[in-house]
Amino acid sequence: MTAPTTTDYAATRPLPPGKVRTRRSVIALVIVVATVWSVSGLQVTLDRLLGAPGDAWAILRQMTPPAFSEVYERGALGKILESVYIAWIGTIIGAALSLPLAFLAAHNVAPHWVRVPIRQLFNAIRAVPELILAVIFIPITGLGAWAGTMAIGIHSIGTLGKWAAESIESIDDGPIEAVEACGGRWASEMRWAVLPQVMPNIASYWLFRFEINVRASAVLGMIGAGGVGSELVLHLSFRNFPAACAVLLMTITVVLTIDTVSAAVRRRIIRGATGTEDEASRSTEALVDLTGLRR
Amino acid sequence: MTLTAEGPIRPNRPRTRPLTYAVAASLVAGTTWAAVKVGFDPSTFWKVWSNPLWEKFWPVPWDWVFDGRNVIRPLIETFQIAIVSTVIGCGLALPISFAMSSLTTPNRPTYLVSRAVMNVVRAVPDLFWAKLLVTAIGIGAFAGSWALSVFSLAVMVKLFSETVDGADPRPLEAARSAGGRHAPVVRTGVLPSVFPAYVAYALYVFELNIRASIVLGLVGAGGIGRVIEAQRQFFRFDRVLGILMIIFVAVWVIEHVSVALRKRLT
Description:
The structure holds two protein chains of two kinds.
Chain A: H1 9-12, H2 17-40, H3 46-63, H4 68-73, H5 76-105, H6 112-127, H7 130-141, H8 145-169, H9 174-181, H10 186-220, H11 229-237, H12 241-271, H13 282-291
Helix pairs in contact in A: 3-12, 5-6, 5-8, 5-10, 6-8, 7-8, 8-10, 9-10, 10-12, 11-12
Chain B: E1 3-4, E2 7-8, H1 18-37, H2 44-47, H3 62-66, H4 72-100, H5 108-123, H6 126-137, H7 141-165, H8 170-177, H9 182-189, H10 191-216, H11 224-233, H12 237-265
Antiparallel strand pairs in B: 1-2
Helix pairs in contact in B: 4-7, 4-10, 4-11, 5-7, 6-7, 7-10, 8-9, 10-12, 11-12
């Protein structure tokens, strides 16, 4: 005979349907009220709302056919390539500065008093958008590609550092112990025990960040920080829609090509030549890491 | 272990292939070329501190910043843009994601077309959408919320359709074999298992939209960015800094609330 076990069933029991329904309607009400309040603040009138699709369609009609030759002669291809260069150098600056910091931010290899300020630094950097950083850098470096590169490089430190620190935190401790047992110092532990374990992940994060940065650097041109954005703004403000459409299509092509190639390289880095692991999308994983959304 | 005169037997270190050298060399060359093209100048890192413009960032004129009309009202407009576009984008994303997943798509053409369209939509950066729509339907928050709606739709379908891909196919099969039509089958077979992920992604997209809506104003699409752009052109960097601090606090609060909500969900 065993004593009757007393379990708190009330805690594990699902909510009665009535309560679930109340909670659902409260949530729905909150969303509806928030939406109505927001719409009321946006100066939306009925004729604007009904006119918007027509206006968008009119612009779309004026955009065809895209004027590729005109844009090409103005050197739009060079501008797009400049965007890619900005993204690449920005990513390298971010990677180079974030890698050492990541080792100091991981809880299994760094002491508390070093870790906390560096984590806060990453968070602070992530909170400032690239465009705002570029706004700050432009008066210092002057208009041009270098301002955008600095903005992207600095902003990348935040996310890259966070992702790298999290992969360092999820390593196997065995090798660290082995290096310690051989009399290695902290630096040799990092070099021979930690780095080989995390490098594939970190490299794939760098590439993923590069993909994001290509889009970001295209945008940076819009405020004069180098790259293709300035072309688009120029054509749109002169209402030269065929040219704007051509620039847009060229940008889309380059962005999609880079995404595809980079995704293939990332898969190769993570899975190796013969790997058969499940094909979880790295971008989703990275986004999941980015937001602390673990499932 | 057999110890020979040469020491313990170890595997040979694999030889580096010529291809590896070629890749490394081309990477170095490409990087150098790109660095020249962007005007790489490491001195900026230390010159930054001796720039005379820094004096313009301080002191922050707090009475100007806290005067309701200057900063607070555009900031509220920013959040309104983010809320509207999250609701529109995420609402539309639900059916489209189901069309985009091979598990729940109604038919092959829908699957291919929705995928192709969404890939192209996502390839256009958010501010390009904003600029296009500002040109099309006029300056202001209205164009900004359309732009962010389109962009959050693109992000949301990417995230959520991948979750639907990974859903358990067995309830779906059961519902199908019970003779359900397509929409009710998806509604009862897949939606319950992926709905928590949907809500979590929606909150994440909301955070993205808050960040994105801050910079929308730089291209004339409403919100706090408009104020930043105006003050920047007058070289009032002290005001810019004050605005940035307010934004920083607001975003920080919203992010923590959102993360806390998501933790409760999952």
